[in-house]
Amino acid sequence: MQNTLLANAKELVKSSYLKLLFIFLMISFSGCQDKGFISTTYNEKLLSQPTGCLKLVLKPYSKEVYDEIKTLHDFDVNCTRILEIKYKTKIVCTSQFNTNKEFTSYLELNLLENNKSIYTLYKDLKDENITDEIIKGYKLLCKKINL
Predict the structure, then answer these.
(1) 3 state DSSP class of 145
(2) Residue 83 burial (CB < 10 Å; 0-12/13-18/19+)?
(3) Quick one: pLDDT at residue 9?
(4) Whole-angstrom Cα Rg for the chain
(5) pLDDT tens track for 24-63
(6) Which of 139, 122, 43 lies closest to 85 in space, CA to CA?
(7) Could you tell me which residues are beta bridge partners of residue 124?
(8) Backbone angles phi, psi at 49, to 5 degrees
(9) Fewer Cβ atoms within 10 A, N terminus or C terminus of the chain?
């Protein structure tokens, strides 16, 4: 009886290790794929409130990018709800700890109310057109806030 219990316990431990190994491998390989935007909600109550107007803030400011983005919405410079778009291109990472050197840009869209974070979309990019990615992120944000 004890031998049977011991054998069952060993099988259970062995299968648990295999499950953990499988989960670890899945997490490791999933980090190598571009899965789109990652979202974070900071204030569900403010996020669920209607968005009447939006102010646009670009960091860094680019007239070319601004001219493309301003066609998406009638942005209001006096609005307290802000769409802050941060991006950086042509990033060269020389860190030995960087596991994926294919990404050369990033994009972050932040929805703010009176400078308090409500919602964020983030995406690492490989040499994509930053304006096209901003438009994709904006459309995704619009779905989330029913704009």
Answers:
(1) helix
(2) buried
(3) 54
(4) 22
(5) 444 444 443 445 888 899 999 888 888 888 999 998 888 8
(6) 122
(7) 106
(8) -75, 145
(9) N
CA distance 35 to 46: 27
Query: Measured between alpha carbons, how far is 56 from 85 in angstroms, rounded to an integer?
Result: 8
Other C-beta atoms closer than 10 Å to the C-beta of 112 total 20
Angle at 94 between CA 93 and CA 99, to 5 degrees: 75
Tally of residues, the chain = 147
Spatial CB neighbours of 73, under 8 Å, sequence gap ≥ 6: 54, 56, 138, 147
For strand 38-41 and strand 116-125, is the pairing parallel, antiparallel, or unpaired? antiparallel
Backbone angles phi, psi at 82, to 5 degrees: -115, 135
Tokens 């601004």 belong to 66
Other CB atoms closer than 10 Å to residue 107's CB: what's the count?
Answer: 21
Distance CA 123, CA 107 (A): 5
**Residue among 72, 82, 78 at smallest CA distance from 113:** 82
Write out the two tokens for 69.
């983005």
